[in-house]
């Protein structure tokens, strides 16, 4: 039944915005499959290849809260269209890249476009729908995350094995232009919020620079040594930048985020879980892609097909946990999910072979999917609806930062295997991931509240 006064085009609008969001999510896992081919064609070393992933997720996460604030100040329509145009142009640049500098520059610009587009598109969705329709629309929106990761591995394999790795970027161009042209006519004009305060650009720069400095230290640690003076000093620099960000958020008129929300146990616990879960997920995709293609000699398409069970298992794990979390609470779901991931990831760490990698990471993916659900339900368990936007932005930021940090660490640990023909590096990378999952499972017992989530949080998890 049509609601009185509802925009009759609202579901088509949701479909177009969902396609745009799908491209942003896709652009992490689709590139993971293409990395070995990109490295060979452009002659990139391990650290540079790591930045091909991290540059995108770093900018996406670091500027996302700024993108949401820009949407409030200037109107969602303007920011959606700007973000989509920047992302599309940056995709073309990345595909045309014939050097490391141009490729990473394109990936940085893609991250900027994604940070503008994602929160502003979600704002349009929340403004367009009301009541039960809004819950349904947000459910569709949330499902895009798992779907994008699952389909990304297959699309990455198809495109890399077919027309070439450049097409993992080129594919965004026609889709982006068509969606832009339709949204230009369909997106409703919206009135910006009252201009109280402004954009906290210094805050966004500081938090992004802090995370970028930490990533740089972790990537270089594989060559310099984990306890070398250079590594420790660079990490200290990241701490200084984070401290400056925290100070700025307390004194600036319009802060990027109210850091006091992170002092709440559910939000802090949820942020921790999403950081770990995303780091684990991107790490096993990164290690698995290089193991199968670089060491085992698999083609890109065969690798993409081998990864499909992991993506499907992650989705199934998330769905089952979404039903279970309302009965037993987020704490046991997080503990069991991370424990399953730890035990499963031990398999490729101990036993060699493509089958062991696929089996271990597939079962591990189911556990990671459960951790994702526990992260969202924990975060939103005691959040007022007026703070849901801020909490969602924080969760999304830690999600992207988790991917950046995870791939930075495992690329250093697996340096010997990524640059040579031995398996010791892969063993170190998978072992570290298993240890992180095990430690996180134990910590979940201490940090995740025991209370069952509220009805709203359960609905968020189910989606």
UniProtKB/TrEMBL annotation:
SUPFAM superfamilies: MFS general substrate transporter. It is found in: Cell membrane. InterPro entries: MFS (IPR011701), MFS_dom (IPR020846), MFS_trans_sf (IPR036259). It comes from the Bacteria. Keywords: Cell membrane, Membrane, Transmembrane, Transmembrane helix, Transport. The chain crosses the membrane at residues 12-36, 48-66, 78-96, 108-126, 138-161, 167-187, 199-219, 225-248, 269-292, 304-321, 333-351, 357-380, 426-448. Gene3D superfamilies: MFS general substrate transporter like domains, Multidrug resistance protein D. This is MFS transporter. GO terms for cellular component: plasma membrane. Residues 13-452 form the Major facilitator superfamily (MFS) profile domain. Its main location: membrane. It is a multi-pass membrane protein. PROSITE patterns: MFS. One of its GO terms (molecular function) is transmembrane transporter activity.
């Amino acid at each position: 039944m049509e609601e009185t006064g509802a925009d009759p085009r609202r579901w088509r609008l949701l479909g177009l915005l969902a396609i745009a969001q799908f491209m942003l999510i896709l652009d992490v896992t689709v590139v993971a499959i293409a990395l070995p081919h990109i490295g060979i064609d452009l002659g990139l070393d391990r650290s540079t290849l790591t930045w091909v992933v991290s540059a995108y997720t770093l900018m996406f996460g670091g500027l996302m809260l700024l993108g949401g604030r820009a949407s409030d100040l200037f109107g969602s329509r303007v920011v959606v269209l700007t973000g989509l145009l920047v992302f599309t142009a940056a995709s073309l640049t990345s595909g045309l890249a014939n050097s490391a500098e141009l490729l990473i520059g394109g990936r940085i610009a893609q991250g900027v476009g994604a940070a503008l587009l994602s929160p502003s598109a979600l704002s349009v969705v929340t403004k367009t729908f009301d009541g039960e329709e809004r819950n349904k629309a947000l459910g569709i929106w949330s499902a895009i995350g798992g779907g994008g990761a699952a389909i990304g591995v297959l699309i990455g394999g198809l495109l890399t094995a077919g027309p070439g790795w450049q097409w993992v970027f080129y594919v965004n161009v026609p889709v982006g232009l068509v969606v832009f042209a339709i949204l230009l006519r369909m997106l409703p004009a919206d009135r910006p919020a009252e201009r109280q305060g402004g954009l906290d650009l210094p805050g966004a720069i500081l938090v992004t620079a802090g995370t970028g400095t930490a990533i740089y230290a972790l990537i270089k640690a594989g060559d310099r040594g984990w306890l070398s003076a250079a590594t420790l000093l660079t990490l200290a620099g990241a701490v200084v930048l984070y401290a400056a960000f925290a100070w700025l958020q307390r004194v600036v008129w319009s802060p990027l985020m109210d850091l006091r929300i992170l002092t709440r146990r559910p939000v802090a616990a949820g942020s921790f879980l999403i950081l770990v879960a995303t780091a684990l997920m991107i790490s096993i995709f990164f290690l698995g892609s290089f193991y199968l293609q670089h060491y085992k000699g698999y083609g890109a398409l065969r690798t993409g097909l081998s990864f499909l069970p992991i993506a499907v298992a992650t989705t199934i794990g998330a769905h089952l946990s979404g039903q279970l979390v309302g009965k037993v609470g987020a704490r046991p779901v997080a503990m069991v999910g991370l424990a399953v991931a730890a035990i499963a990831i031990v398999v490729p760490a101990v036993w060699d072979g493509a089958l062991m990698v696929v089996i271990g990471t597939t079962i591990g993916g189911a556990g990671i999917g459960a951790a994702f659900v526990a992260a969202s339900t924990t975060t939103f368990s005691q959040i007022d609806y007026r703070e849901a936007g801020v909490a969602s932005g924080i969760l999304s930021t830690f999600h992207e930062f988790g991917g950046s940090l995870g791939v930075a660490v495992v690329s250093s640990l697996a340096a010997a295997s990524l640059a040579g023909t031995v398996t010791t590096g892969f063993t170190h990378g998978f072992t570290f991931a298993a240890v992180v999952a095990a430690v996180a499972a134990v910590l979940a017992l201490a940090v995740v509240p025991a209370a069952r989530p509220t009805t709203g949080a359960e609905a968020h998890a189910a989606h």
